[in-house]
DNA sequence: CGGGCCCACTTGTAGTTACAGGTTCGAGTG
DNA sequence: CACTCGAACCTGTAACTACAAGTGGGCCCG
């Protein structure tokens, strides 16, 4: 299997290791090498591409981190099986859609809806400058009349002009984002913790301040890595549980 | 701020970069450097610890990946803001593998390990008849010495003969399942809730019975839909949060 | 006093060498 | 024939050098 590789450019526009990483990734994703098939050794790649082992190792390190390959000391580097790694395939949506399908009556009440300036936490999560305009939403979601979820959402105003005036009652925010702003979520990070609510949140959720709740922080982004939404949700888990599927 | 660092051991038991990474991480997590405060430059660290810049860069790279620091070209490395947000990557595994990679000392203590007959919950989750033999495990996982996770696992004895006698201390259960029984997890469902521990569990986790914990129920299955594992895990979330990446 | 440039310092990239430690496989030995 | 042991090969760790490229402060000049 003697592949012909495009030569690497040494004009300094792009690091050698990145070019090499791309070349190897393209080859792997093309499927030329099956799962668990070995890549050429570092020394061989070094010769093949005319670069130092430093560059080769840097490129392989990146591929390992992307979980496209794995390395075994003393043996070599191998194509990782299951190109779609097992991951949490959670409801990308704010869960409204899923619940609706289950035949329950889901209502969403907007408690607050306003323009504001990003505080430190929002700026960090959304990767925007401190003080940049954001649309803030505080929404209470009920299922069959019972308080379920209290969500504080922040979105960069630049991405969603006019959202501070949109009617969101009983709508899925993700639906609005998709239809009105063409926003297609690509991925998200979420952190889940067990917390107590403060007095105000407890009142809205109709629980005592000593009821343990799920606190869920989330940041979601587009294909191009633009962060478009950050939220913190308080989830009553005394009646139901938060579901995560992994496929 | 002239810190006194413990000297690095050169006996080869642990790579220099990992020792250095640990030393820097301990310092950062102790809080002596505030958020966005600069670390010593690579050259300074090199001198301070008497190692090459190679070792320093390797250690810093690891800390960047753990999101404890960030680097800016031409300026330096800085303590990342956001609290001690220890990373807990959720993939398929029981989290042991992921944590181990982050260079922390993960120990697993088997509190109980026995054969038994499936109760109603286990039978329903595993889709086996009531009373069929199951292997039950109760394991306590510590990270850097601190109790982290208490897991009650049930597996159909038919699928894992002899597991009730296997030595599981400090091993990843998923590793054992894979190597010894050829079990390859294909998917899983998980439900997360916020709960209080009972007295016994609280004692094991070294928290009070009024500390809110994450309760995680999980059932995992093979490609052919055979359920091979059901567990309920209690997760301390006062020190770290449960992370879910959605891609 | 203001502006621009240079220099010192920083991280990033790339090359080199050396050796440690794990894996594989075949030659030689009992 | 089985078994061992070493050679060859692999990745991991560590050292060194060199230069590119970004940052920031201070000095000099107009």
Automatic annotation (TrEMBL), chains A, B:
Keyword Cytoplasm included in the entry's annotation: no
Xref: SMART domains: HTH_GNTR, UTRA
InterPro entries recorded: Bact_HTH_transcr_reg, Chorismate_lyase_/UTRA_dom_sf, Tscrpt_reg_HTH_GntR, UTRA, WH-like_DNA-bd_sf, WH_DNA-bd_sf
Pfam families given in the database record: GntR (PF00392), UTRA (PF07702)
Keyword Transcription: yes
Annotated ranges, domain HTH gntR-type: 14-82
Alphabetical list of CDD domains matching this protein: WHTH_GntR
Domain of life: Bacteria
Keyword line: DNA-binding, Transcription, Transcription regulation
Transmembrane segments: none
PANTHER family in alphabetical order: MANNOSYL-D-GLYCERATE TRANSPORT/METABOLISM SYSTEM REPRESSOR MNGR-RELATED (PTHR44846), MANNOSYL-D-GLYCERATE TRANSPORT_METABOLISM SYSTEM REPRESSOR MNGR-RELATED (PTHR44846:SF1)
Protein name, per record: Transcriptional regulator (GntR family)
Species this chain originates from: Microbispora siamensis
């Amino acid at each position: 299997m003697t592949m012909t590789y495009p030569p690497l450019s040494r004009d300094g526009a792009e690091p050698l290791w990145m070019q090499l990483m791309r070349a190897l990734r393209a080859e792997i994703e093309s499927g030329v090498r099956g799962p668990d098939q070995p890549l050429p050794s570092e020394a061989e790649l070094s010769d093949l591409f005319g670069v130092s082992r430093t560059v080769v190792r840097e490129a392989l390190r990146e591929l390992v981190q992307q979980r496209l390959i794995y390395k075994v000391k003393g043996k070599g580097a191998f194509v990782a099986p299951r190109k779609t790694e097992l991951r949490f395939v959670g409801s990308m949506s704010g869960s409204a859609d899923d619940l609706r399908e289950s035949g329950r009556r889901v209502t969403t009440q907007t408690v607050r809806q306003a323009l504001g300036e990003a505080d430190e936490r929002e700026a960090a999560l959304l990767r925007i400058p401190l003080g940049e305009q954001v649309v803030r939403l505080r929404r209470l979601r009920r299922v069959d009349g019972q308080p379920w979820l209290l969500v504080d959402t922040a979105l960069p105003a630049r991405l969603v002009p006019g959202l501070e005036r949109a009617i969101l009652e009983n709508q899925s925010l993700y639906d609005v984002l998709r239809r009105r702003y063409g926003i297609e979520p690509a991925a998200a990070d979420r952190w889940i913790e067990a917390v107590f609510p403060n007095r105000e949140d407890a009142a809205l959720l109709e629980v005592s301040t000593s009821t343990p709740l799920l606190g869920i922080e989330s940041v979601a982004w587009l294909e191009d890595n633009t962060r478009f939404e950050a939220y913190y949700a308080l989830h009553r888990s005394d009646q139901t549980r938060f579901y995560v599927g992994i496929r």
